[in-house]
Design goal:
about 10% helix, three-stranded antiparallel β-sheet, mainly beta, two-stranded antiparallel sheet
């Protein structure tokens, strides 16, 4: 959590991030650092997928526009 007032969070995708085209994995991509507010992401939701259970929580895949990535890092 970067700023609790705005719900701004930072994070990093981990190895295992891939470029997918037409439902097929094409190649691994670099890891991305992001800084984004959950409020902004929810405001920018374009689509939700079928939720899956993860650690006791139901989590849907989310497609959101204008997500803020701030830097790249090599994948291992």
């Amino acid at each position: 959590m970067v700023d609790p007032k705005t719900l701004l969070q930072t994070g990093l995708t981990r190895d295992g991030t891939f470029y997918i085209e037409n439902g097929q994995i094409k190649f691994p991509i670099k890891n991305f650092r992001f800084n984004e507010s959950a409020v902004i992401v929810l405001n920018n939701v374009e689509a939700l997928g079928t939720p899956i259970r993860t650690n006791g929580n139901m989590i849907p895949p989310v497609k959101a526009r204008d997500f803020t990535f701030t830097s790249l890092s090599d994948a291992v």
